[in-house]
Amino acid sequence: MQMDDDKREAILQRLRRIEGQVRGLQRMVEDDRYCGDILNQISSVQKSLRATGKVITRNHLETCVTDALRSGDTDAAERTYDEIMDLLYKQIQ
């Protein structure tokens, strides 16, 4: 993954925070907490994951995708278009 160190560290911090949220969810289930509270926390985790995915997607477009398209290699460009379409449709589903 082509990413500067500051951006990588920011993403890792986000993921560690999400990991903590998931551990909190586990404790909530173990403690037999109210379902609505658990669902709210799940929603929060999903939102955090989406935001992290958005940052990584932007980086991918700015680096790997841009490099492939600027290379002049039509096969690489075609593979990149296919990859982006697959990634976008996975996120929608």
Automatic annotation (TrEMBL):
| GO BP term (any one) | negative regulation of DNA-templated transcription
Q: Which domain of life is it from?
A: Bacteria
- Mind telling me which InterPro entries this protein's record contains? Metal_Tscrpt_repr, Metal_Tscrpt_repr_sf
- What GO molecular function annotations does the UniProt record carry, in alphabetical order? DNA binding; metal ion binding
Cite a single Pfam family from the UniProt record.
Trns_repr_metal
The UniProt entry, under Gene3D superfamilies, shows: Metal-sensitive repressor, helix protomer
Q: Which PANTHER family match?
A: TRANSCRIPTIONAL REPRESSOR FRMR-RELATED
Family membership noted in the UniProt record? Belongs to the FrmR/RcnR family.
Q: What is this protein called?
A: Metal-sensitive transcriptional regulator
Phylogenetic placement of the source organism:
Bacteria, Pseudomonadati, Rhodothermota, Rhodothermia, Rhodothermales
